[in-house]
Amino acid sequence: MGIMDGRCGRALFVVMFGMVAAWPCQLALAAPTEEDCENAWESSPASQTCQSAAVGEDSGQCEVEASCGMATFPFTQYQAWSGSREDMSNLQNCNGALTVGSC
Known about the structure:
By secondary structure, this protein is of the alpha+beta class. It has helices at 25-28, 34-43, 85-88; strands at residues 2-4, 11-16, 19-24, 50-58, 61-69, 76-83, 91-94, 97-100. Mean pLDDT is 79; it is low at 1-28.
C-alpha cells in the first residue's frame, strides 16, 4: 500500500492490490483536538503580544479569539481567527491583525 499526499494536494491516493482509490484530503487527516489548537496557539509568535479570550476547535479547524496589541499603544484590536493547526502555529500579530506568516 502506498500513500501519497504531498502536504495533502487535495486528495489522498491509496494504491492497494493494483487499484487506486482517492479520498478528499479532509477525510485522510485527523482533525485537531482542542489541546492541539491550544498548543499551536501557545507556540505562535502572536501569543506573545495577544491576549487570548478563547482557543478551541470547531469542525476540524482551530479557532482563537484574542485582543492583539497595536503600534498605537495602549490600543488593542479584537480578532477572531479560524484555520488549520499548522497555520495557527504560524500566526503573527501584524499591528493588531492576526496574519499567517510574515506581516
